[in-house]
Structure formats: structure tokens, C-alpha cells
Amino acid sequence: MSILEVHNLKKVYRLSDGGTKVALDGVSFQLEKGEILGIIGRSGSGKTTLMRILRGVLPFDEGRILMGGVECVPDSDREVKRRLKDMTAIHLQRSFAFWSAPAIENVMRRLYALKTDDETILPPDDSIEYEELHDRAMVLLEMVGLEHKAELPAHTLSGGEKQRLLLARQIAIEPEILLLDEPLTMVSPDAKREMINVIKKVHDTTGVSILLVSHMPKLHESLADRIIWIDEGRIIREGDVRSITSAFMEGIEPVLPITPLKDHIPIFKLSGVTKKYFNYNLSKVFEIRDIDLTIFRGEILGVIGPSGVGKTVLMRVLAGIELPDEGSLNFCTENGAVVDITKLGFASAMIRQKIGILHQEFGLTHHATVEEIVRGRTKFKEMSEDDLKQLSKKLDLKESILDFVLRLADMPPDSRNAILDGFELGEDELIEIYAAIPQVHLDMDYVLEMFGLLGLPSEILQRRAYELSGGERVRVALAVELASKPELLILDEPFGDLDPLTSRSISNLLKEVNKRIGTSICVVSHDRELLAETTHRIILIKDGEIKREFADEELLNL
């Protein structure tokens, strides 16, 4: 018995530059009650667009959707779209919109909103209703294997743990159809296995029908009853899982060889770096301790390790946007000067302009054009020391405070807001400070060169971030960072939600960038095979320490 029927669905995007893009073209399929139906395709093939249409949050141009007795056509009213939302829950890729609160409270707010339609409130914590909510939320956390992390702040969870918390929030509403869009994004191999088991448990426990979008063949082979292959908005094959995933992988490009590292001239030295993370009740979440690490000019360094050991925190420490509890971060300039960026001030602010960081969340402003994003980013990276001094005087800020505020600009919004909560400084005041930074001249020829190097046409500068596909987003995010001419580029899970074919392409592009302009690159990834073909060397972070030499078996068990 079908719970979902899709007939001749078509979606055309009207782009802000005046053009159009056909995202879906004549898509038809059925989802049976209790079935797990897989959807595979390259980044940008229309998979996420399809999920958003089925969720009722994105209009479409042609076709018909039948879901649980509800018919939706292009001119259906809001009530029909609301009924689609009531029947579905969606798990979007790289979308971790959590409250700055413990994991269990994030689930409790979701549950309470079913009654109040408002996640901003909870009943009094000494009430019976609060206790009942807490118990229900704990059951859901146990279902996704997160009961031991219930009291930890959501923003301190690893990528895999955030995926499971997001899943707990979605099943809280008891949907008839669960829409999973890349549920293994930014997840380590061990966490992938755990997440697969969690999805199986949720399916077996609830009987929910699942539409599973993923570019990972092994995920479909583990979970899907059937599979659909979408390419450029059209279904090109449907049926047996293994035969279709095998055909999908035939299009992967060959590995580009990496340019050997000739010299070993340091660009960055970490000495005795220790960083401890605590939750709100002062119990330790994790610790990286006594880290010594040298990164060389022109090197591509790979970083791998289990989920939740502090890889992302170490990258933020490298970028100077989180300070270690102990140790030094010495940036070595080309003229031989050494600056410890743990010391706040103009000198550190100048050095940090030479460092670019691409977070897991990418940080592309949703409604901004790509050119606006480039301009907004480069103005933070091309200030002279005189510019900094004038800004300090204009804003009446000490140089250490100005440097601190500039570091916040490089942080993802959720982490920045968590820090701001501890200061008498709001997001609006921060935006006012950033607006006071003068816009620098943009070397458009260099910008176009970087975009071209990454296979991006000049026209994409006029597109808005929400108009970009997954593959375009990672290329644009890389190009935005490269446009500010970093000497060291830090990439935290750049391959996280890309299909294997696009991941290989991005890996080859990173090696080409390294060869052409000599950028030093530090890449965090859970994909050991991809790191091995992309980098000069790999370090393993495990048990709070760096291991430079390790057996292959240690990587197999991450």
C-alpha cells in the first residue's frame, strides 16, 4: 500500500541573475507504507529539492503529490502544505539548528511545541508536566543512543552526535514519513555504523516510512529496500540497490597525483597546546593535551580521529578563534618573524588575516549573493595595522578587545552566540562593530582566477547562497576563502556531504590549488582513503593526543 505517490514533478528555479535552472524534470515514484526507499545522485542532482517539496516548504511548477490521502498540486493552498508538514519530519544535510541548551532540553522543547506550537517555552521545572516531558525526551534519546549525552550542551556534541540529536527531535513529532537528507554528513566511520543501526532501530520501533537521500552507496546497501537514481533532475534508474550503486560509481574521475613537498620550512608551530572543554555543570566533555605540531609551507596535512575528540576545536585553535588553556601558537612569516597568536593584539590580528578557515557549516549567508559574501569576507582579511589602529580608536576599543571581536567574526554563529551569552555584548552590537570596518578594494581579477580554478563560472558571483547546490556550495566556500589569499587554509570536513564522485573532484582541486599557488592546507576528514590520496601526511587525534605514526588497523576502528 502506497503512503506516497509522486507524479511528473517539475521544479524550475528562477535565479537572481535572471536565469533559470531545472532542478526536477518529470519525477515519478511511489513509497510503500513501512518501506525505506533510497535516492542516490550526485551533488546538485535535485535530491534536496525533492525533499523540501515533499515537506511542503518549497513550491513546484508541475505535477502532483498524493500523501496519506492528501493531494498537493502547484496551486494548492497553505492548508494543504501544512498537512504535508504535519505528516512528515525532515532531517536536512548540514542543518543543526539547536537551542543553546542541553541535548535533552532540545528534545523537550520539540515535544512541548506539539502542544504549544512554541519551542521558546517549557513548563516550570518543578512541575509534573516538566518531569513527564523529561521522561519522554529520555526515551527518544535512548532510541538514538544519546542518553549518556543528555545533559551536554548541544553545541559541544560531535557531528555524529548532532545527527542523532536531530533525528530524536524529528521522531518526537511521530511523522508518517521520515525524510532523511544525508544523515551521515560529517560523521566518522564508527559513528556511521552507529547511525545506521540507530536508523534501523527507529524504523523497527516506529514502523515509519523513510525516504532516504544519500550519495553513499554503502548506506543504501545497508538500509534501503529499493533505490532511485536521480541525475540532473531526472530519474534514470530504479530498482535493485546493489546494481544501481555499482553503476553510479562508474563515473568517478582518476586520482590526481600530489606535488611532493620539497622543503620542510615551518609555517605554524604548536607547542604544549592544551584545551579542555566543560559543559554547564563543569563536568569535562573532552580534552586535547600537550599538543606539539609543526605544519610546513606548501604542505597538505590530513587530520583524522574518532568523533568527539576535539578535531574541530583543534582547527579553531589553529585559526586563532579559540585560545588554548596552555601553550603557544607560533605563526612563522615568510620574512622569518614569529608571532604567537595566543597573545591578543594588533600583531595577532594581522597574522590571522593570513589564515583562512572553512567550517563544517560553511557559513555562506543565506540570502547574500556570492559576490557580497566575497566582499564581506575579504574586508576582514586585508586591513593594515594602521586600519586596525584607526578602528580601535573609532570604536574606543583596546587592541586586545578589538582582536577578540575580530576573532568572533570567524566563528560559526552557534559557537559565537554561546560565547556572547557570557559577555555583555549582543549580536546587534557585534554587527554594528563589523559594519564600521571599511570595505577594501576587491581584486576582481584574482577572485575570478580562484573561482575559475575551482571550476566556477563568473556568473555564479551573482547567484545567492540558497541557490547553490551542495557541490557548488563547497566550491564557492573554498573560492571565498582563497579570494582572501590565505597562506594557511584550514578545512573542517569539506567532503562531509558530497557524493564520492564530487569528493574525488574536490580532492583533485585541492591538490591543484596547492600546486599552482602553494597554499598550505590542513584538512579534517573522517574519510581515511580520501585523506590518503589528498595529503602529504596524516596525523591521528586519539585520546586527547596526536599520533604521527599508527597502524592502518587503528584507522579502521575509528
From TrEMBL:
<dbReference type="InterPro" id="IPR003439">
    <property type="entry name" value="ABC_transporter-like_ATP-bd"/>
</dbReference>
<feature type="domain" description="ABC transporter">
    <location>
        <begin position="4"/>
        <end position="257"/>
    </location>
</feature>
<dbReference type="InterPro" id="IPR017871">
    <property type="entry name" value="ABC_transporter-like_CS"/>
</dbReference>
<dbReference type="GO" id="GO:0005524">
    <property type="term" value="F:ATP binding"/>
</dbReference>
<feature type="domain" description="ABC transporter">
    <location>
        <begin position="268"/>
        <end position="558"/>
    </location>
</feature>
<protein>
    <submittedName>
        <fullName>Microcin C ABC transporter ATP-binding protein YejF</fullName>
    </submittedName>
</protein>
<dbReference type="InterPro" id="IPR003593">
    <property type="entry name" value="AAA+_ATPase"/>
</dbReference>
<keyword id="KW-0547">Nucleotide-binding</keyword>
<dbReference type="InterPro" id="IPR027417">
    <property type="entry name" value="P-loop_NTPase"/>
</dbReference>
<dbReference type="GO" id="GO:0016887">
    <property type="term" value="F:ATP hydrolysis activity"/>
</dbReference>
<dbReference type="Pfam" id="PF00005">
    <property type="entry name" value="ABC_tran"/>
</dbReference>
<keyword id="KW-0067">ATP-binding</keyword>
<dbReference type="GO" id="GO:0019700">
    <property type="term" value="P:organic phosphonate catabolic process"/>
</dbReference>
